[in-house]
Design brief:
alpha/beta; 6-stranded mixed sheet; 5-stranded mixed sheet
């Protein structure tokens, strides 16, 4: 190649590289929607991921909290967003798998309005008692409720959620009048539990783990098929005689329908690299998550299987969508 053409080619490549670097630095801003208030488990998880994703994606990643209606507002915001790779929704099972089954008109249809972008963990829900409740274990809690006349309130992070259905099943099995008290996310529920304003609550292990370790509350039972590594002394509900809750919920990130496959694949690859980093993996695992990257296809399969499991349970309770 003549020297002039070589110089031109080198200049062209240099300009392209400079342009790419400038683009990455000026970068777009990516919104990571969260359907619950700041301070809760889901918010903490989103911020851990956002911190590392900004380097992987060469963009600013902003966690945007849209609390209310169990994640319904955030889901509606995702539906309204442009499918251009700048808006994603980090959610656990409730907003994607449960809300469309318990609300007649949630304002979105996950199968039509969303596409899976990346999965990164599964987890289990747990039953915990506040520090002011004398029960040391789940059976102790049941005995304590009977001693209170057989009636007690149990906090749940959202109405018509898996925790609320679990409270209903427990009450029916043990012939107790357990009343689910719904909150606008786990953070306010935890506030009332720590202040001994409510005797017990059901939420995810990430919601409870730190206060369980410090002794400010006690997790007395977990869902899932096996005991959890972060709290090996806590039995499963199956061990306690309440089977049927072995399927585990998920954490995933979703995008608006119509987002290009290439964008989804690149985003999923970035999430996989992030959760493989020891610093990120260990922080999430310490919160009680079983960390492992899922492709968009794998997340979609997990979501459909979990939705089917809880569809059967919800119908068995006789719940009528509101």
């Amino acid at each position: 190649m003549p020297r002039r053409r070589l110089l031109a080619a080198g200049l062209s490549l240099g300009l392209l590289a400079a342009s790419g670097a400038a683009s990455a630095q000026s970068g777009k801003t990516i919104r990571l929607l969260v359907g619950f208030p700041a301070g809760g488990g889901t918010d903490a998880i989103a911020r851990i991921l956002a911190e590392s994703l900004k380097d992987e994606l060469g963009a600013t990643v902003v966690v945007e909290n849209k609390p209310g209606a169990g994640g319904q507002l955030a889901a509606q915001a995702l539906k309204a967003a442009a499918p251009d790779g700048t808006t994603f929704f980090l959610s656990h099972d409730h907003s994607i798998s449960i809300l469309p089954q318990v609300i007649k008109s949630p304002g979105f249809d996950p199968a039509k309005d969303f596409v899976p972008a990346a999965g990164f963990a599964t987890f289990v829900n747990a039953f915990a008692v506040s520090g002011g409740t004398p029960a040391a274990g789940f059976n102790d809690y049941l005995a304590w409720v009977r001693g209170q006349g057989g009636k007690s309130a149990v906090g749940v992070p959202a109405p018509a959620s898996v925790p609320e259905f679990l409270v209903k099943v427990i009450g029916e099995k043990y012939k107790l009048d357990l009343v689910a008290a719904p909150y606008r996310g786990s953070a306010p529920m935890m506030g009332d539990m720590l202040g001994n304003q409510i005797a017990a609550g059901v939420g995810s292990i990430p919601d409870f783990i730190e206060n369980h370790k410090s002794g400010k509350l006690r997790v007395v039972a977990v869902l899932g098929g096996t005991r959890q590594a972060v709290m090996p002394d806590v039995p499963t509900f199956a061990e306690l005689g309440l089977a049927g809750f072995e399927d585990v919920p998920y954490y995933g990130i979703f995008a608006p329908a119509g987002t290009p496959n290439a964008t989804l694949d690149a985003f999923a690859a970035a999430v996989a690299r992030v959760v493989a980093k020891p610093a990120v993996h260990d922080r999430l695992a310490a919160m009680g998550l079983s960390v492992g990257a899922m492709t968009p296809e794998q997340l979609g399969q997990r979501e459909r299987a979990y939705t089917a499991t809880w569809s059967r349970i919800i119908k068995a309770t006789g719940f009528v969508p509101q």
